[in-house]
Design brief:
Residues 11-63, 64-114 form the Myb-like domain. The chain is mainly α. The chain folds into two domains: 21-63, Arc Repressor Mutant, subunit A (Orthogonal Bundle), CATH 1.10.10.60; 74-131 and 157-202, Homeodomain-like (Arc Repressor Mutant, subunit A, Orthogonal Bundle). Helix content is 56%, strand content 0%. The protein is elongated and about 65 Å long. The structure holds a DNA duplex (21 and 21 nucleotides).
Length: 203
DNA sequence: AACGAAGTCAACCGCTAATTT
DNA sequence: GAAATTAGCGGTTGACTTCGT
C-alpha cells in the first residue's frame, strides 16, 4: 500500500492512506497522555497531518490496547454468524460482543468469508430441499431462507421474532466483556430458530 | 514466468446521532 | 431551543496479495 501523501502543496492538505510507524507512535503517545477524545485537536496537537476521523479510526482499529488481530476462531465465527442473523449488519454491536475485535474487522471478515459461506450453504440447502419436496409448496417464498442474502439494512426486520435489540443488549449494564450473556443468547437463539421453523410451517 | 482475476483488508466517505455551546 | 461541533456507524474504495491459467 503506497501512502497517498499530498506533499509539496502550499495549502494544508491532510495525509491520506496508510499510516506510518511514526504517525502511529505520535498518536499513541498523545492519547496515552491526553486520552482518546476531541479527535480534531488530537490530530493537530499531536503533530499529525491527519483528519480527526482518520486518527479515531486508527486508534480504535489498531492502536487501542487489547486489540486482537486475525485468526478468528471457530467459536468467534459461530458467534458472528448467530449475531448477524439476529442483528443484521450492526457491526459495532456484533463487535462489542467479541472482546478485542473491531467492527471493521468483523465487517471485512463477514464480507470476505462468511457471506460466501452462507451463500454456499444456502444453495446446497435449497438444492436438497428442492429434491426432497416433490410436491409444490404453498409457502410464500418471501419468508423462505433463514439466512439473508447479501446482507441488508432490513435484516433485523426480517427476523421472525420481534423484540427490542437495544433493550436486549443493554450494554450500559455490563461493565466487562463477560461471556455469560452468550450462553443466554444462544439459548434464546435456539428458541427463535424453532419459532422460525414453526412460523414457516404455518405459512 | 507472466498476466489477469479474484480475494483481502486498511482506510476513506457520507451520513446520522449525540453532545456542547 | 437552535446551531455548531464531535463521535460513531455502515458502505464503499482501492492498493496489495494470492491464485489460476
Amino acid at each position: 500500500m503506497a501512502p497517498k501523501k499530498n506533499e509539496g502543496s502550499t495549502k494544508r492538505i491532510m495525509n491520506k492512506g496508510a499510516w506510518t510507524a511514526e504517525e502511529d507512535r505520535k498518536l499513541a503517545e498523545y492519547i496515552e497522555i491526553h486520552g482518546a477524545k476531541r479527535w480534531k485537536t488530537v490530530a493537530s496537537i499531536a503533530g499529525l497531518n491527519r483528519c480527526g476521523k482518520s486518527c479515531r479510526l486508527r486508534w480504535l482499529n489498531y492502536l487501542r490496547p487489547n486489540i486482537k488481530r486475525g485468526n478468528i476462531s471457530d467459536d468467534e465465527e459461530d458467534l458472528i454468524l448467530r449475531l448477524h442473523k439476529l442483528l443484521g449488519n450492526r457491526w459495532s454491536l456484533i463487535a462489542g460482543r467479541l472482546p478485542g475485535r473491531t467492527d471493521n474487522e468483523i465487517k471485512n471478515y463477514w464480507n470476505s468469508h462468511l457471506s460466501k459461506k452462507i451463500n454456499h450453504k444456502e444453495k446446497t440447502l435449497q438444492n436438497s430441499r428442492a429434491q426432497e419436496t416433490a410436491t409444490p409448496s404453498q409457502k410464500d417464498s418471501g419468508t423462505e431462507g433463514d439466512e439473508e442474502e447479501g446482507g441488508g439494512k432490513e435484516s433485523v426486520n426480517n427476523s421472525d421474532v420481534n423484540f427490542d435489540v437495544n433493550e436486549f443488549f443493554d450494554f450500559s449494564a455490563e461493565g466487562s466483556y463477560g461471556l455469560e450473556w452468550v450462553n443466554k443468547f444462544l439459548e434464546l437463539d435456539e428458541d427463535t430458530m424453532n419459532y422460525s421453523e414453526k412460523v414457516s410451517n404455518i405459512m
